[in-house]
Amino acid sequence: MLYSFLRLGSAARTPAPVLVAASLLTGTTPLEVAAMKTCSKCHESKPLNMFSPHAGRKDGRKTYCKSCCNVARRAQYQANPEKGRLAGRIRYHINPEKERAASQRWRQANPEKVRAASRAWGRANPDKKRLKKARRRARKMNAPINDLSAAQFAEICAAFQHRCAYCGRKAKKLTIDHVTPYAHNGSNTVWNVVPACKSCNSKKQAGPVLQPVQPLLLTIAK
Questions:
Q1: Mean pLDDT across the stretch 111-126?
Q2: Tens of pLDDT along 37-50?
């Protein structure tokens, strides 16, 4: 065991007696002390696994600990968010499987943050949230076409003067109504969608239209 300490001390360029003394002070083993490194940013001594790999360093680890690296990355992103988003897209394009796995691990480890971010995004983007929900439902119902965008639905609402296609009532929040319902092989696309108030949409459900309507066949928006 002592021979292992001596070899470890030599590899770490730290005398073995120093390792032993440090282990007594910190309540750790000499092996654990030898596997420690001091971050050049926060100047805290941490285990080697708290430093990301770096092939160019003698010890194979970065000089900053992972926590300090994360803080620096967040600061860089806040200073130039567009550059950060571009870098993220490039990483995803190069290795999509790795990025998806990393994203999934983070979501599983931070469920509260995920829910809070989702709620904040929904409040800031009510139209996009409604379209996202409609697309998810269309996928579950195996809709033949599922390409309606938030911009297209906004254009549809404007064409109907922000009124319900059935009762003509003006409403701040109009729902997406599918002329041919999903249950009858309807699509989630421009030519099968009209705006409807919640009351009329609930009355129609998966049945026939409440009165003849003419959906838009084309939109400028994509």
A1: 90
A2: 899 999 998 888 88
Task: Please compute, for residue 61, the number of CA atoms within 13 A of its CA located in the half-sphere on the CB side.
Answer: 19
> How many angstroms separate the first and last alpha carbons of the chain?
70
What is the SS3 assignment for 87?
helix
CA distance 38 to 179: 66
Domains of the chain: 127-204 (1.10.30.50)
Pick from 38, 77, 83: nearest CA to 61: 38
Cβ neighbourhood burial of 23 (10 Å; 0-12, 13-18, 19+): middle
pTM of the model: 0.53
Tell me the three state secondary structure of residue 194: strand
3-class DSSP state for residue 3? helix
In the DSSP assignment, the letter for residue 160 is T
Phi, psi at 142, each rounded to 5°: 55, 45
- Give per-residue burial for 32-43: e unless 16+ CB within 10 Å, then b: ebbebbebeeee
CB 53 within 8 A of CB 66: no
Could you give the CA distance from residue 31 to residue 49 in angstroms, rounded to a whole number? 14
Residue 9 token pair = 């001390």
Average pLDDT, the chain: 82
For residues 178 and 141, the answer to whether their CB atoms sit within 8 Å is no
Residue owning tokens 């729902």? 175
Measured on CA atoms in the order 79, 82, 84, 87, is the torsion positive or negative?
negative
Q: Tokens representing 70?
A: 């994360």
